[in-house]
Structure formats: structure tokens, C-alpha cells
Amino acid sequence: MPDHFHLFVKGDPNFTLSRWMGGLKRAIAVALGCSSSELWQPGFFDHVLRSDESYAEKWNYVKKNPVRAGLVQIASEWPYQGEIVIIDRL
User: Are residues 78 and 51 part of one domain?
Assistant: First the structure.
């Protein structure tokens, strides 16, 4: 969407989502040559996915976002469909 994005994130037992999101926001802002406060609203909304059913439900919600926003007629027309990217910092 033009004003937000969705991420599905999984981490190990020591993973801290808020710390990770802060780092992601900083990295994107630096890459774009601006400050985090210019680019991002403070905070974020998170939702814990507890089952395969919940995952599928949320993935379908995200896929249909451009349709609900009136940007495309069907979800498959949206050129920025998600993909799985594994970020491993071992």
C-alpha cells in the first residue's frame, strides 16, 4: 500500500520484534537518505500468528489490501506481491 506495508516475521526464542523493527526502520531510512522520523510513524502494530489457519487468513488479507484500496481490480494485478526472504544473521 502507498502508506504502509505488512511483514510476516519469525525469529528464534531470543528474538525481540521491537528491536528488529527499529533496526529495519533505521536501515531503510539510511538507504533512502533521510531520518527515521521523516519516514516512519513511531511504533508499529503487531499480531501474533498462532496457527496455519491464522497465517493463511492474514496472508489472504494482505494480498487483498490493494483491491480494498481500489488500486487494482483483482489481487494478482498488484505488481508488488510479497515474497519470502530469509534473513539469517548467524
Answer: yes
Expressed as residue numbers, the domain containing 33 is: 12-43
51 and 75 co-located in one domain: yes
User: Quick check: is 5 in a domain?
Assistant: no
Q: Which residues contact 44 (CB under 8 A, 6 or more apart)?
A: 18, 21
In angstroms, the CA 35 to CA 26 distance is 8
| pLDDT tens figures, 5-53 | 888 888 888 999 999 999 999 999 999 999 988 899 888 888 888 888 8
Sole residue written with cell 520484534? 17
